[in-house]
Prior knowledge:
The complex is a heterodimer.
Chain A: H1 5-22, E1 30-31, H2 38-49
Helix pairs in contact in A: 1-2
Chain B: E1 2-8, E2 19-23, E3 26-32, H1 40-56, E4 59-61, E5 66-68, H2 71-79, H3 82-92, E6 95-103, H4 113-136, E7 140-144, E8 150-157, H5 161-174, E9 179-186
Antiparallel strand pairs in B: 1-3, 1-4, 1-5, 2-3, 6-8, 6-9, 7-8
Amino acid sequence: MSGNAIAEREVALVDLVDRLLGGGVVIAGEITLAVADVDLVHVSLRALVSSVATAQRQGVLPADGGDGP
Amino acid sequence: MIELLAITDDTAPAEPPLRVVRAGGLGVVVAPASEDEVDADALWRREALLERLMEQRALLPVRFGTLVADDAAAAEAVAGRSEALADALRRVRGAVELSVRAVAPGQPDEGSPGEHLQARAAHERTAAALHERLAAAAREHARHDGRELLRAAYLVDRSEVDRFVSLVRDLQAEYGELSILCTGPWPPYSFAEPEGA
């Protein structure tokens, strides 16, 4: 992984949390779990995007970030 | 309590701690409900289980944190919707979800109100142009409002993922002033809800 690996994982975490909380099929049941620090994750995105040109996860994008600025 | 993680139509056993509970022709993928505090590592472990399962069979992720008392309650929870869920599984079969965010630099609050409006209209045009090209490479798409210029999910055939990623790279080269963030492949979280639900 490149030097941006941690930041990339953080960006991917934002995408994961968005999907967990806003996606998926809603089935009758009891929704009881809460995710700690979700607000923190969203706040940190703004700081991250200025330093990360391209997110990499599971080799979808190359470690050099492609043709980013 | 057990947590419902996904709906599938392949009822073969799954890797522990996952189990597949039969519900009509469908299977409900369940795991023991965790008592621990949910942190990022726990979310990634859960995600890894789902992604390994996704490599072997079509699945619909269930909204995070859905708990029921036991296997009978898990089967009952999907029984009334099995046809719609089977349709939804057909829609996502053979495809994965890719996330794209495009972020513009600079402070949107700078400048006069007129300049601000003009900048916003320009951003909207750019977002529409990006989305149109990405959507053309996808089976389905879902655009979300957010603070970013573009935040969207694309349902892409497995065989087309490389082509989609090349397109993202081309767009990044073309729109050098933006940061285009692509993550995935994800299970089809944004395409799991049956149509007309």
